[in-house]
Design brief:
Strand order of the largest sheet: 1-9-8-7-6-5-4-3-2
Strand content: 5-15%
Order of helices and strands: EEHEHHEHEHEHEHEHEHH
Number of helices: 10
Shape: globular
CATH superfamily: Phosphoenolpyruvate-binding domains
Helix content: 40-55%
CATH architecture: Alpha-Beta Barrel
Length: 255
């Protein structure tokens, strides 16, 4: 199997769809996606818990055990590592790797709308790479979501790459000029979160982006489709769209 590291250097961006359970991951894998991520929002919502509050550690590990070593490369969204203690984050990352994860996503955003100090987040990254050198660490900064200036983004990404991050992730960034500037600044692959109103995968690749994540988009689309279908049936409208047969979904249990 091609490594997750190698998939960031094929000449085209790695399109990473994000699953939320075994069926969604198996269905995506069946469509030929070599790497699949998890969505922290979907994991949290499925458990009735808030996202980004470091309360879904057990659920994240449980899903990793379900999806690891299934014939595709798994990148796990681990929020902020569920701790500000680098040793604890590294220990959890090692458990994820043992369960079959090929990569981990670590964010510096906090549930209260602030950012973890860059030195603390860099220490987490360094500890993970020391404990699990082969695990692909995608270091995320939430500066653009929090409307923090570009120079802070660059400073944080530089600190994270120096700490050993294999790639960096800037969700909320969609401006081609700023993306190009970051690509030129960085020595590691840049990950961008796909936005239906932003550049497409081909355009992002032309800008130098190496990885395009779908985040919680698929989960939210699926939830919206379920609501639309239920409301439509209640209103007497026919069911439309792509509806997998019972046997198709049943078949995913063997994937």
């Amino acid at each position: 199997m091609t490594s997750l590291h190698a998939l960031h250097h094929t000449g085209s961006p790695l399109l990473l769809p994000n699953a939320w359970d075994h069926a969604s991951a198996a269905a995506l894998a069946a469509q030929g996606f070599p790497a699949i991520g998890t969505s922290s929002l979907a994991v949290a919502a499925g458990a009735g818990l808030p996202d980004g509050m470091a309360v879904t550690q057990d659920e994240t590990l449980r899903l990793t055990r379900q999806l690891g070593n299934r014939g595709f490369l798994l990148s796990v969204d681990a929020e902020n590592g569920f701790s500000d203690d680098p040793a604890q984050v590294a220990a959890f990352a090692a458990r994820l790797a043992a369960a079959g994860a090929a990569g981990i996503n670590l964010e510096d955003g906090r549930g209260d709308g602030t950012l973890t100090p860059a030195t603390v987040h860099a220490a987490k990254i360094a500890a993970v790479k020391d404990a699990v050198p082969d695990l692909f660490v995608n270091a995320r900064t939430d500066t653009h979501w929090l409307r923090i200036q570009q120079d802070e983004t660059e400073a944080r990404l530089d600190a994270y790459s120096r700490a050993g991050a294999d790639g960096v992730f800037v969700p909320g960034l969609s401006d081609p000029t700023r993306i190009t500037a970051l690509v030129r600044f960085l020595d590691v692959p840049l990950n961008i979160l796909y936005s239906p109103t932003g550049p497409g995968v081909v355009e992002l690749g032309a800008l130098g982006v190496r990885r395009v994540s779908l985040g919680s988009l698929l989960y939210r689309v699926a939830l919206g489709a379920a609501l639309d279908t239920a409301i439509g049936i209640r209103s007497g409208r026919p069911v439309t769209g792509n509806v997998p047969a019972y046997s198709d979904v049943q078949g995913l249990s063997g994937e």
